[in-house]
Amino acid sequence: MFMLSKRTLFIICGLCIPFVMHAQQPGEIIEQDPEMVELEKERIRLELEAEKASIQMEQNRINEELQLARYFGYKYFSPAAAQAGGQATAADNLPVPTGYVLGPGDNVMVILWGDSKLQTSITIDRDGRYFAADIDKWLYLSGKTVEEAEQYLRHEFQEAYATLKGPKPTTFMDVSLGTLKSLTVQIVGEVASPGVYTVPPFSTVGSSLLSAGGVTISGSLRDVRVLRDDEIVNSIDYYKLFLEGQSNTDFRILNGDVIFVPVRTSTVEISGEVSRPGIYELLPGEYIDQLISYAGGLKPTAGLTVELRRIIERGKRESDDDAVAVSYLNVESLNPHEVIDGDHFWVKNIMEVSRQVYVSGRVKRAGAYAYTDSLRLLDVLKMAGGIQDEDYLKSVNLVKLDIT
Question: CA-CA-CA-CA torsion for 334, 338, 344, 350, nearest 10 degrees?
């Protein structure tokens, strides 16, 4: 029995040894094949380059958003807003604005009920007309408002349906809009993607600008122009919408209009103790008080001093080393103060060192404490929770700062 076990053990080991000797890992196979080694290196290199490019794109996107956030108003036309705005709302769900003018491509539904019944769809052709077989005549609707079209159709159908006439008609008419034509508009100037766009009916200048990717930071938000037949029919100041909520400042466009965004009139920055620091566009005749108003006003922590950094005109400076002049203004005497393109106003904070005492070192609660004329050193130490490790106390240094 013992001999049988030894033979059995010998057989099992003999069967296992070949598998152990011939088993190879994937890495060992690659090492034995130089071509596969190079392919693996190339694959890793391409993956790293793709990852690096992806990180760089994300970094660029973040930098663009951060820069855009500094310029007031342009977030309304940011890429995210443009993407959302570019998804046109179905025209069927939009309310018909007062005074909408019918044109080629518009569809009008006419329904008669009562003694006579009729349901017909009228689509205006490129010549502005439609042949109504039910009454055997051409109908001319282009150029008419919805209200004018309803009166016109009622008059034309009364000739074929007598029951529509009289003070007590027995046939009744309803006129409504069906599918409406899209508008073609040119968007040029300082926009992300200038060109010719097809936009939904009832589109405004703002929604059309979103179709073109929005206004770039080099473009004006104070003077967006609408041209019709080569004449300026409107100029829009979007600050009135953004700061005052005047929605009527936006303008409904017509087919063939041109939207032109000129270069911004000025670039003025305000920072420091204002509610909405940033870069603003001021029009000629607007002063620093208007700039502060655009920035949401002064914070309670604003001091009396405003630092102004102004770029000196090229013809008035000796070198670029003297290109910026620094001056200080008093908040109480700012109005009026001319604002020039490139100005940077910094509203200073109330000096934190004034009327405060700082305690540091071996105390329980180091920090700043309010100063009063009757304040004593012992009072300050008590406010700071007292001295730690009194047995090792060697000295107390009192330092006074002259801030005058």
Answer: 0
